[in-house]
Amino acid sequence: MTGIAIARERPDTADAMLLIGELEAVLSPLYAAESRHGYSVEKLIREGVHFFVARAEGVPAACGGIQFYPGFGELKRMFVRDAWRGRGLGLAMLEHLAAHAGANGCALLRLETGVHQHAAIRLYERWGFRKIEPFPPYKSDPASLCYEKRL
To answer: Which domain range does residue 101 map to?
Structure first.
């Protein structure tokens, strides 16, 4: 898809909060509160998550972030709005986050996602992520899957 622009921005901008709010609206009916691990806007900022918004044709269409830890980076808040799905935005965001990780000296990506996020799981597995046991702070949860990929 042409016309995609991905830029780093604070999670408390109007566009970022719109995307995070829509993501929460999608996840809330699917998972119990104890199985939802997404950071609030305030926690994204407090934890220093590098957050990005993708705009397609100038419209906020997707978001994602990465939190750096010693030895790995964890993907956070990956989301593509319904109207923009199937157009390569998830892949573009994933590739952007991986490039950002590499530019910051990070060679291992990890993530946690829910079992009902079928499109996201397909994307991660196609891109070479492999399932792993839960990594801290995650615990075994039948509604949760953890993945990693070496860059």
So the answer is: 4-150
pLDDT for res 3:
84
C-alpha–C-alpha distance, residues 150 and 126, integer Å = 14
Tokens read off for 151: 């860059």
The residues, ordered by sequence, that sit 6+ positions from 27 with a Cβ below 8 Å of its Cβ are: 36, 38, 114
**pLDDT value of residue 109:** 98
18 residue type, one letter: L
The whole-angstrom separation of Cα 124 and Cα 19 is 20
3-state secondary structure of 84: helix
Tokens standing for residue 66: 């990465």
- Domain of residue 14, CATH code: 3.40.630.30
Is residue 74 a contact partner of residue 38, using CB atoms and an 8 Å limit?
A: no
